[in-house]
Amino acid sequence: MVLWGPVLGGLLVVVVGCLCLPALLRHRRPQEPPLDKGFVPWLGHAMAFRKNMFEFLKGMRAKHGDVFTVQLGGQYFTFLMDPLSFGPILKDTQKTLDFIKYAQELVLKVFGYQAMDGDHHMIHSASTKHLMGQGLEDLNTTMLDSLSLVMLGPKGPSPDASSWHEDGLFCFCYSVLFKAGFLGLFGYTKDRAQDLQEAEALFAKFRRFDLLFPRFVYSLLGPREWVEVSQLQHLFHQRLSVEQNLEKDGISSWLGCMLQSLREQGTDSSMQDKFNFMMLWASQGNTGPTCFWALLFLLKHQDAMKAVKEEATRVLGEARLEDKKSFAFTLSALKCTPVLDSVMEETLRLGATPTLLRVVQKDFVLKMASGQEYQIRRGDKVALFPYLSVHMDPDIHPEPKTFKYNRFLNPDGTRKVDFYKSGKKIHHYNMPWGSGVSICPGRFFALSEMKIFILLMVMYYDFELVDPHMPVPPIDPRRWGFGTSQPSHEVRFRYRLKPMQ
Ligand code: HEM
């Protein structure tokens, strides 16, 4: 027994040595970007990165410039901060950079979903068919019905709907968008009231998973939280199971088409349940938080609110309830809202903070717009963090921290697409949806549903901040890099349905 101590100690030394050795041996080679391994063996800068990715990367850029390699948990990430040089990374035609294998590992860990090689293509082609063009027009009708159901209730507004109600703005937006999006995409049963209750209960679980999500991805959960996460995963697999879906009407063509492809390729039903969980996450994790930021900015900038309301009245006319149960809303008006489009682009510029990651498949030379060249090693990861390198660049977006509702409008009221860096026209001036192979396939649908919600709010509701002087809350630093950011605290507001004849 006494011998076990030294044996285990020896084993530990060997394991730690094996983990740290490659890091100790790694040195910057000629023509490689500056290498910053940090002081902690193997972990490198992982703790500072996970604590506040934005501040960490800002510090690294100040120290090393526009390209640098950092060690994070035994892996090497090369961050590229010059958006004029993004082209070769995003339009990689040589298949030097891979997104799919990396994504497959992530979805296996987070959703339990074992992806197949054709999945990425299948998801994007189903989305092109059903979340864009004519498919999107059909889905918009469904989303309007879902939003009416969630906001007005199954029997239409209750007698007290025109009295003031107080709530947290973040929770309100997230909950409404989640319930409407979930019902619109995953379908209804015959009992609308029960569907609403089920969606409400599912949102509570979704929110719990959402709160644990960043630390789960970084493997930082405590033992109890691990248990909780696996219970939540199990619950979602059950609640979203294909068996339960069979009893539903109106499952969206988008989801139906993808599930059919999975069946055709022989994916078993338990794996399809996991696929549904992954799609629930992708479709519902960002729209609610984005609408929170949009409504908050409108409330804090009355000139923007006035411009959006004027545009809404111009394209949609006066607010009116149909059969006292649903909102009158001409969906074609969504194509004629340049002011609201600019508000959404500006909100996403300030609120969306995705990280774009690619795994390097073979050694390659990164050619910068300046002409400088860097050697990048096979096995490393190349990362873009556009929030810092694009959205917050004062050269591209003057006063980048300020919300300017007309930033994306030309003086003649058309959409502004001309932005410059160092005097050169820049293609990637706002990247909330990612870009290249991993661009969000739901972006057109997301914009439509968020715009319908915002328009319904400004037309049909009175709403105001409980404390109009309260500053906009800072972004929760633990969520940098994970899609749309969330506020570090809730904002109280009150709302009521405008009294109507
Ligand atoms: C404000 C709302 C949204 C934002 C900001 C957003 C953003 C993003 C981003 C940045 C990615 C790429 C992630 C990466 O590079 O790893 C992504 C992927 C994805 N998004 Fe969205 N998204 C939104 C809403 C939606 C909606 C409503 C849907 C579907 C109905 C959707 C479906 C997807 C899917 C399926 C993927 C994975 C695509 C793949 O595997 O390549 N998203 N989204």
From TrEMBL:
Its cofactor is heme. One of its GO terms (cellular component) is endoplasmic reticulum membrane. The chain crosses the membrane at residues 6-25. Keywords: Endoplasmic reticulum, Heme, Iron, Lipid biosynthesis, Lipid metabolism, Membrane, Metal-binding, Transmembrane, Transmembrane helix. It is found in: Endoplasmic reticulum membrane. The keyword Nucleotidyltransferase does not apply. GO terms for biological process: lipid metabolic process. The keyword Membrane applies. Heme binds at residue 440. Signal peptide: none annotated. Its main location: endoplasmic reticulum. It is a single-pass membrane protein. InterPro entries: Cyt_P450, Cyt_P450_CYP7A1-type, Cyt_P450_E_grp-IV, Cyt_P450_sf, Cytochrome_CYP8B1. Substrate binds at residues 109, 286, 381. One of its GO terms (molecular function) is iron ion binding. PANTHER family: 7-ALPHA-HYDROXYCHOLEST-4-EN-3-ONE 12-ALPHA-HYDROXYLASE, PTHR24306. Belongs to the cytochrome P450 family. This is Cyp8b1 protein. It comes from Phodopus roborovskii. The gene is Cyp8b1.
